[in-house]
Amino acid sequence: MRQVQFFIFFSIVLTVYGLINWYIFSRGLMSFEPGTGLRRVFILAFWFLVISYPLGRILEKIYLSHLSDLITWAGAFWLAAMVYLLMAVIAFDLLRMVNHFTPFFDKIIPQALLDRPYFFTIGIATTVFLLVFAGHLNALLPRTEQLTINLNKKLPQMDQIRIAMVSDIHLGTVISTKRLSSIIEHLNSVEPDVIMIPGDLVDEDLDPVIRQNLGALFGKLNAPLGVYASTGNHEYIGGADAAVDYLSKHDIIVLRDTTVEIIPGLWVIGRNDIESDRFAGEKRKSLAEITKNIPSGDVRIVLDHQPRAYKEAQEQNTDLILSGHTHHGQLWPFNYITQSMFPLSWGYKQFGQMHAYVSSGIGTWGPPVRIGNRPEVVVITLNAKVKN
């Protein structure tokens, strides 16, 4: 049954993907005269980019190589370019419709450009290329977000704990050795007591992670109280058991509907992703069941990849809930969609006595591009009183 669901889901995705690209292609093709060399170059380059991402992901599963990496990278950038080319084509079609009823093109556009419409196509493509390139540079430069939270609870020994949180690293072909080394260096530079990763540490396919031995880099993390993670939807898409087993062998403590007391009186609760049932037939436990053995007065930090189950977390006296998943849209204007879908798309908010933070993530999914938001390392200083 789940295989049928996967087939239907990806069939819909590929159909929509194909229709969008055909629309962009048909409009671009109109600007090139039949039989010209530019037209042939446009056709070949366009369809190579269109098929490159799915082709690269298929090749990864058959035979990992530098060629499959190159094709995947080309396709990943195309995903971002496609978004803005689509917006440009729609805008241009709207202008054409207005011009049809109220002609104005010939009044504001020089005749030399009207006679060479491929200049518009090249100009739009160049503009989108520069935008995507700038977005790629932005994706490589995470900021440090500082946050202080004061709790109305007491701890037996420590009155302050420094948490470094990152989410949505998406390790794989695109986020690999160089990027992970940079992320680890950034995390160590903030001198955390503990590191927390609420999901999507790996990007579906584990093979590129194993091939590049990325897990070995986690041994360089410096957090006296440990590194804790929960599963995200991408761990489940690629096979959660294998991903968790690999991470567990490389110094990452993955909590799957389980808890751990990292210091006396302070518990970390890791929830399985809310879509574990959909992707793996594993219905996750209720938070009440997971936390039933935690004393009521102790501090509770919940790692829950998708920022959805806030009401349930409040009911179970959660002090702090950390999530990711949204990427805050990753590419503008998708942030407006994530803002409408989730109680919190990015940043800090307090729900009653519960504190919540949703990270925009430090990696990327699909295109290695961020436009309209920044990747981040979140540093949370958690203050509590020491029990007398």
Please provide a brief summary of the model.
This protein is α/β, with parallel strands linked by helices and 388 residues long. The protein has 2 domains: 2-137, no CATH class; 143-386, Purple Acid Phosphatase, chain A, domain 2, CATH 3.60.21. The protein is built from 14 helices and 12 strands.
Protein model, in words:
By secondary structure, the protein is an alpha/beta fold. The protein has helices at 2-29, 37-62, 66-101, 105-108, 111-114, 118-139, 177-189, 207-211, 233-238, 240-248, 276-280, 287-290, 310-315, 334-341, and strands spanning 143-155, 160-165, 194-198, 227-230, 253-254, 258-263, 266-270, 299-303, 320-323, 347-351, 354-358, 376-386. It has a 6-stranded mixed sheet, with helices on one face. A 6-stranded mixed sheet has the order 6-7-8-9-11-10. Strand 2 (160-165), helix 7 (177-189) and strand 3 form a beta-alpha-beta unit. The termini are far apart.
